[in-house]
Amino acid sequence: MVFWKWGFVGxxxxxxxxxxxxxxxxxxxxxxxxxxxxxxxxxDNPVGRLKVFVYELPSKYNKKILQKDPRCLTHMFAAEIFMxxxxxxxxxxxxxxEEADWFYTPVYTTCDLTPNGLPLPFKSPRMMRSAIQLIxxxxxxxxxxxxxxxxxxTPHDFGAxxxxxxxxxxxxxxxxxxxxxxxxxxxxxxxxxxxKDGSITIPPYAPPQKMHAHxxxxxxxxxxxxxxxxxxxxxxxxxxxxxxxxxxxxxVWENFKDNPLFDISxxxxxxxxxxxxxxxxxxxxxxxxPWSPRLVEAVVFGCIPVIIADEIVLPFADAIPWEDIxxxxxxxxxxxxxxxxxxxxxxxxxxxxxxLANPSMKQAMLFPQPAxxxxxxxxxxxxxxxxxxxxxxxxxxxxxxVLNWTAGPVGDLKPW
Length: 416
Ligand SMILES: *[C@@H]1O[C@H](CO)[C@@H](O)[C@H](O)[C@H]1NC(C)=O
Ligand SMILES: *[C@@H]1O[C@H](CO)[C@@H](O)[C@H](O)[C@H]1NC(C)=O
Prior knowledge:
Its main location: Golgi. The protein is α/β, with parallel strands linked by helices. Strand 8 (279-285), helix 10 and strand 9 form a beta-alpha-beta unit. Residues 1-16 and 18-29 have low confidence and may be disordered. It folds into two domains: 9-37 and 208-364, Rossmann fold (3-Layer(aba) Sandwich); 41-205 and 370-413, no CATH class. The longest helix has 25 residues, at 2-26. The strands form two sheets. A five-stranded parallel β-sheet has the order 1-2-3-4-5. Strands 7-6-8-9-10 form a five-stranded parallel β-sheet. It has helices spanning 2-26, 63-68, 79-88, 124-138, 141-145, 166-172, 208-213, 248-256, 272-277, 294-300, 322-325, 337-342, 346-356, 359-364, 376-386, and strands at residues 52-54, 102-104, 150-153, 182-185, 200-201, 224-229, 262-265, 279-285, 304-308, 327-328. The structure holds 2-acetamido-2-deoxy-beta-D-glucopyranose (2 copies). One 2-acetamido-2-deoxy-beta-D-glucopyranose binds at residues 136-137, 140, 143.
């Protein structure tokens, strides 16, 4: 009975993939123009709309840490390093702090890695505090706003909450000294203590050159229906199960491991990037955090992202029409993924694929070296420019203080 059911769906699917292939080949489709809720903002040029002052810090806050472990140049948190490099040579940079709209403090808080290459965030709050102490005593600008015209790149799992476990991250909350600053972070989830209003959600870093090297001809048929590679359980950190990915990844595995429509596994093949270009749908379930580099990979490789992460706030959501390009599945509906995905009409799939083919959307997901117009660096600047001019309320009266330098966990107060 079960066999026949799957056999039937399999045939349906084969027909379906074939049909889409045929339609795709039948026309030389122009890419559709993207209209985000803020208009065609992906193509905005931030140059001339803002000036950024880059604080010069001792190299122990940035370059030295990188020298110690160059793996942070390629991991998914590398945006903090590339953003720094980009700003140093960006036309929006000003050497005159008096004319700056925004102040940037280059601190690499995710570059202290375990032997396995995972960031150890425990010292990050102390490091950040130390950097803020330094800029606030050496320059007058921090004290004028207590950070409200400063932005920080905090790409860790739960941003400036600095912990990879959600419960701990929530317990810690955003580092008190960053309460007024604008945070540029990968983490985004609505109504979450680790995402404050006015933050800019960015894509995680995925290596542009490596991805480019794995491109296959655009017309290659998409013969895989659903694709996923990654963990379903994290036995080491979540032995009881259910906590990791709030059980959503486990549910994907338990329900669909034997389903021929689902090409899912924990193996990470060398053809991973090619496989995504041969797939119609790519699963992007939450892990420890709601986000993962799969989002970027799916967009770059034209595979429709199936986002399973309730309340996620996606990168540059004011510019990228995520609802139009992706499919959103509630965590509690994972068991119905097969019916949800097979009942999407082919014309809807084709439209999503056409939108995904738009080069400006792919560009917005990447941090290339050197930078290119419209890339993620430029989208961050666009986001900062859209927050200007600053409200007058951000400027404090002389000697007025808002932040509490001794708030937060006692361990964070130790010198770095
Ligand atoms: C900013 O305020 C702090 C704390 O009130 C003070 O110690 C510091 O000297 C001030 N910075 C400057 C540049 O005046
Ligand atoms: C600052 O935070 C500490 C620790 O939570 C608290 O004891 C203190 O009363 C706070 N200071 C002010 C002025 O609110």
